[in-house]
TrEMBL record:
It comes from Pocillopora meandrina. The keyword Endoplasmic reticulum does not apply. This is Aminotransferase class I/classII large domain-containing protein. GO terms for biological process: amino acid metabolic process. CDD domains: AAT_like.
Length: 435
């Protein structure tokens, strides 16, 4: 009797194995040949990951202060999964200071998690059923797809934005209510029930911000269609443009339904502490809060030592306002200017932005063909020349030729990476000219 092969993993696990990217084969090259200033200077410079090491010296000094961590017996014991009350109170005070909300943010409405990814995962699980969707203006952060589909099976449904300025639009890649309505209609026609809208403000990958008027319009659109609104504000203090001011959704007056708004913030971007894995959810929706805090939070709570370190970090408002934030933003501004200057030197346009660790760059002129295959050919050539940053396809951009370039890195390495990009552009132009 022939024996059938026994399954070694669950059907759920097999479905997770299917989440592969068209970039995987290229990223294998990057992993096999990473740049190092002394050990491998000819390696590939990675300008893909949105991390900020520019203020590490300030953070190191602050976190190593003696008063930063004083262990107590209670710190060695179990705690409520939504986070230490003292930590949530410190976060509430911090967010009240910088978000300027209409109503004070309270610790009782905050949930702390080991990163923003688990928060997105849990929100997807709670506000939508498998096979239902969320509208997300595209291009959008590529990992949103994994965040919502891996376990929750929620569909990120793109709201395509265009580089061409359309009627009643004032800038490229502008979000409008008309585009939201169009995407909602398309989702309905395809049988996808939309349960929410996700806005990333400041935007990743565009580095633009939403105006108060647009945010209000989006909230009214969501209210008309009974949609939850998730607002990702993890880059709110990463302004690189002089005078940049982010309109936080909690600062808006007369919003249609506060209980349908869920705000995400974390320490990874504004503080350059992605390794500390700390994300924060604010929601006034008691059903959402209870479902996450009593269910999901058991699997994604944050270790006590990290909470205590971060508590002391954000309680020092003088240090934040007078040293850390202005210094960090100045360094981001300098790095941003260096990147833009290098690209403009070889005639490559950059979408004007103001906040983030990256720029949205237009390489359409030097694509071998105006297709996504041509985009990947250019990406491959960049790898050949020792530099890597995400192509627009990773962000579900509707148009080929756009790339996100992270500029938040040591100036010497940034300059070298930019010179390799310039070399690639000149080669691509020469090939196009020669036919």
């Amino acid at each position: 009797m022939e024996m059938k092969e026994m399954p070694f993993i669950s059907t759920r696990a097999k479905s997770m194995q299917r989440y592969t990217s068209r970039l995987d084969k290229y990223l294998t090259r990057l992993k096999a040949n990473p740049f190092h200033k002394t050990k491998n200077p000819q390696g590939i410079i990675e300008m893909m990951t949105s991390e900020n090491p520019l203020a590490f010296d300030l953070l190191k000094e602050k976190l190593e202060e003696k008063e930063s961590y004083n262990i107590l017996q209670e710190h060695t014991q179990y705690f409520c999964c939504e986070g230490l009350e003292s930590f949530r109170e410190a976060i509430a005070d911090f967010l009240n200071h910088y978000m300027k909300p209409v109503e004070p943010i309270l610790a009782e409405n905050l949930i702390v998690s080991n990163g923003c990814t688990p928060i997105l995962d849990s929100l997807g699980y709670v506000i939508a059923d498998a096979g239902e969707g969320l509208l997300i203006p595209s291009p959008f952060y590529g990992s949103f797809t994994l965040d919502f589909q891996t376990r929750s099976r929620v569909i990120p449904f793109p709201v395509p934005l265009s580089s061409e300025i359309g009627p009643r639009e004032t800038q490229p890649f502008e979000l409008t209510v008309a585009r939201l309505e169009c995407a909602l209609k398309k989702a309905t026609e395809q049988g996808v029930k939309i349960r929410g809208l996700l806005l990333c403000n400041p935007n990743n990958p565009l580095s633009t911000t939403y105006s108060e008027e647009l945010l209000q319009d989006c909230l009214k659109f969501a209210a008309r269609h009974s949609l939850h609104v998730i607002v990702d504000e993890v880059y709110m203090l990463c302004g690189f443009k002089e005078g940049c001011s982010v309109t936080n959704v909690l600062s808006l007056k007369n919003v249609p339904d506060k209980k349908m708004i869920h705000v995400i913030w974390g320490f990874s971007k504004d503080f350059g502490l992605s390794g500390f894995r700390c994300g924060v959810l604010h929601t006034l929706n008691k059903d959402v809060y209870q479902a996450i805090s009593s269910g999901y939070s058991r699997f994604q709570d944050l270790p006590t030592p990290t909470q205590i370190l971060l508590t002391n970090l954000i309680k020092d408002k003088d240090w934040l306002d007078e040293t850390f934030i202005p210094t960090n933003q100045k360094r981001l501004r300098n790095a941003h200017q260096m990147a833009c200057d290098a690209l403009h030197e070889v005639g490559i346009p950059v979408l004007p932005g103001e906040c983030g660790l990256y720029i949205w760059v237009d390489f359409r002129e030097v694509l071998p063909t105006n297709t996504f295959e041509g985009e990947m050919e250019l990406f491959d050539r960049l790898l050949d020349n020792g530099v890597a940053f995400y192509p627009g396809a990773w962000f579900l951009c509707a148009e080929p030729g756009w790339f996100r370039l992270v500029f938040a890195m040591e100036s010497e390495i940034l300059q070298l990476g930019l010179s390799r990009i310039q070399q690639t552009v000149r080669q691509a132009r020469a090939d196009i000219a020669s036919g």
